[in-house]
Each structure stands twice: as C-alpha cells, then as structure tokens.
Input
Amino acid sequence: MERLLRHGVAVYYPHLARAHPAAGPAGSEPQLLAFYGELVERVARLAAEWMVAGFTHGVLNTDNMSLAGESFDYGPFAFLKTWDPGFTAASFDHSGLYAYGRQPLTCHHNLRLLQEPLALLLPRAELEARLERFAPAYDSHYRARLLRRLGFEAEAIGSRQGVDLPDPVRLTLQLLAVWPVAYGDFFSALALRLAQGGVPPEPEALTPFVAGAPEPPREAWLAWRDAWWIQAQALPAEQQARVPACAQRWNLVETPVRPMIERIWEAIDRRDDWQPLRAWLAQVSTP
Output
C-alpha cells in the first residue's frame, strides 16, 4: 500500500513528492500526510464546484471517488433544473442517498472512510486533523465561485473583508428556494441583463430578468436585488466595470439539463449527427 500511495503522489502530487522525499529521516509519513491533507482540500473544492454549477454526480460511493480529487466515474449525472437540494440524478436512488444537496456531506464521509486503509500506515489523529480542512475549504470556494456567477470577482469581494454589507450568496439561495425559475437560467439571464445594460444606476432599475418566469416573491426579490446592487456599487469603478464580463465568462448561455442532453444524444444515436453537440460546445467555448 505504501508503494501504491507513493506512486500516486509521484504522479498526481509531484510537488509533495519533491517537498517531502520518502527517503528522509521520517520516511513516507510526512509525504503521505501531506497527500491526504491536500486531497481533502481538492475534494472540498470539487464538491463546491459541483454545487455552484448545479451538477449532481449521481452515484458517489467510494469507488467513484478519485485520489486525484477530480470528477470521476459519473454515469447518471444531471444538472439542476430548479433549485432543489433533494434532486437525484439516478433513477434507482429512491432514498436520496446521493441527492444534490448531500454531495458535500457524502464527499466528507468518503474521505473519512479512506482513513481506514490509510490508518495502517499513518496516525489516525493526524488524518482526522487534516480532514478538518474540508469545511473551511468548501465554504470559501463555494462562496467565491457563486459570487463569480453573480459577476463579482473573488479578489474584489475579498479586498473588502470586514465591511458590513448584505450577503448576496445567502440571499441568492433564499431567492432560488422560493422562486420557481430554472437554476441555470437565473444566472444566464442576469449575465444577459448586465451585458445589455451594465450595472444599473439604482436598485429599482434591476427588475426580474428571467424571461417567461413567474414574478418572484416580492420580499425575497427585493432582499436579493438590494444586496446584489449594494455589492456592485461598493466596488471601485474599474472593478464594477468588469461585472458584466465576469458574469458572462462564468455562466453558460444554456445549461445542459437532461432534456438538452437527451436531444444531443438522440441526434448522435439515431442519425450519427454530431452537429448539435459541436454547436453547443462552440457556444460554451467562446471566450
């Protein structure tokens, strides 16, 4: 097992192999502990990416987790249509074991299960200490990535730490929980609204922007709208000017929800027609 782990570190974590050579006086332990600690952080950031994207892996048992901390072996995956923590992608997941909203907890649980074989080589207390990195790594990455979908660069928001402003991340989730609008459409429509008119000069100019959607609940909408606008107005002028481009950069024009995936696959499967896939890839690959 030690040979296997050292090989994995050499291939996927070469910087750790260089920083903690196994031939040192402490042997492999510093290298392998560093590997587990970084894996915890990689998986936390990966789970945050999934959640911000509205991506549901579908079957997150331990053999579908990668030691490289990458998305791996997803079959019945799906993207959220509307915000729903209980959404499942696998037709057989009747209990919601691998539901969208359970993914961070499941990844954390799987990392703890990995301690069982690792504990043959490494102190359990040291492994547990490194597992504690999961929550702060997940929280900070989730927040930065959701802010990016809202048009705010993480560096710009981070530079104002300590400033008492309403939280657009929390209020975005609260709005999506009560407004029956497509999850991806919310962000893409915001990006389109900003591309067409820029950051509005006053909050009242930012009206509900998702075409064909019902009116949002007024209280939730106003709370979100004002929080978003205040964040935008608090930016320096040069950073505020980049808000529309940031929102466009990090939001797909069309989220590949299941009906879209099925349309693309049907064209390939029945007619060997790859054009719908190529057209969508060209659309999402445009800088």
User: Anything to note?
Assistant: The longest strand covers residues 55-56. The beta strands are 55-56, 78-79.
